[in-house]
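EI: anyone free to look at a 356-residue chain?
SC: sure, send it
EI:
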Amino acid sequence: MKKHNFNAGPAILPKVALENTAKAVIELNNIGMSILEISHRSKDFQAIIDEAVALFKELLNIPPQYHVLFLGGGASLQFCMVPFNLLNKKAAYLETGVWAKKAIKEAKLFGEVVVVASSADKNFNYVPKSYSIPADADYFHITSNNTIYGTEMRFDPESPVPMVADMSSDIFSRPVDVSKYALIYGGAQKNTGPAGVTFVILRDDILGKVDRKIPTMLDYKTHIEEGSLFNTPPVLPIFTLKETLKWLKGIGGVKEMEKINIAKANILYDYVDRSKMFVGTAEKDSRSLMNICFVMQEKYKDKEDAFMEFSKGKGMVGIKGHRSVGGFRASCYNALPMESMQALVDCMAEFEKANL
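SC: here you go
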């Protein structure tokens, strides 16, 4: 039976990226060694990381004064690394979900944190739109897509101070004006590659402004100066990331990907909006293209477990909602094919018809 992978992360990857990675694990480019065996200081790996950086810059149209880094530790380490490097006295944060809350918690270790707005009052089912950013903040931090609650900022906000964004789960899903941001970071395991590598895009002029001493491994300057090779990087995930970005370029890039993602999301949102059994949880003007969250109407709540079993029988994988909110979640990252989205809607319609 064909599986339809809606996992929230690690998530579905392009088939060609998986195939090329599998080949490289056995032997890289006919050099007689596996990608897992070569030196990260070798010409062979330098070519891989150079191509990955070049694809990042090309696909996102990144201006020349920015660096692209590939680090370890996940986005969770960036929650600490960002304020360590940037927060001198005060930072502003927009609280839109669990990951934003975790970032705020870490930032408070380094200075004053102003939460300019929060959607906690409605269990994070919307993105706040009216707020004031302190002009004396060292930076303003947003989480552009909220995987657990299915909300997304599908635009680039304006900020009077340097803006930082956690784009773990929607990078490369839509065009981004990188010039509006001082720093963008994220774990790769949604749209960009496998778990194990973290990307950071940052502008030179934001560094060197804090009074504290920064440990070598937590200093962005270290990794800029060494081209992400200060220590042994996550070699295999970087290779797969490169192959994923080659696939994205091959289908037309980020603008084309956004059209596909809108079409995919509309299939499910349109069904949920007309359904008598299922209902979406995010407010319509905050809906995510990447993570679509929905629940059953109150009178059908007792059928949730039955639907989970039914959907598994139809090949659906990963549609159980996050443990903190329940219900269902379909993560629709770039590599998810249109046919999988249609298969999910067909599955939901069949179950609804049989159980109303």
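EI: The chain has nine helices and 14 strands.
SC: 👍
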